[in-house]
Amino acid sequence: MSPTTAPIAQYLADYRPYPFLLDLTELRFDLAPRGTRVQSALHLRPRDPAAAEDLVLDGGAGLRLIGLALDGTAIPAPRREGERLVIAAADLPARPFVLSCEVEIDPDANTAFEGLYLSGGMFCTQCEAEGFRHITFYPDRPDVMAPFRVTIRSDLPVLLSNGNPVRREAGLAEWHDPWPKPAYLFALVAGDLVVISDRYTTASGRAVDLNVWVRPGDQDRAGYAMESLVRAMRWDEEVYGREYDLDVFNIVAVDDFNMGAMENKGLNIFNSKLVLASPETATDADYERIEAVIAHEYFHNWTGNRITCRDWFQLCLKEGLTVFRDQQFTSDLRSAPVKRIEDVRALRARQFREDQGPLAHPVRPDRYEEINNFYTATVYEKGAEVIGMLRRLVGDAAYARALDLYFDRHDGEAATIEDWLRVFEDTTGRDLAQFKRWYTDAGTPHLEMTEIWEAGSDGGRLTLDFRQHTPPTPGQDDKPPRVIPIAVGLIGPNGDEVAGTRTLEMTEARQSFTFEGLGARPVVSALRGFSAPVILSRQIDDATRAFLLAHDTDPFARWEAGRDLAISALLAAAQGRAAAGDHVEAIGRLAADEAADPAFRALCLTLPGEEEIAARLAAGGAVPDPDAIHAAREDLARQVAEAHAALLSDLYDAMAVPGAYSPDAGPAGRRALRIAALGLLTRIDGGDRAEVLFGTAGNMTERMAALSCLIRRGRGQAALAALRDRFADNRLVMDKWFSVQVTAAPPDRAAAIARDLAERPDFDWKNPNRFRALLGGLAANHAGFHAADGAGYDFTADWLMRMDAANPQIAARMSTAFETWPRYDAARRGLAQAALRRMAAMEGISRNLREMVSRMIA
Ligand code: 0A1
Ligand code: ZN
Question: Which residue range or ranges hold the Peptidase M1 alanyl aminopeptidase C-terminal domain (predicted)?
Answer without folding.
Answer: 543-857
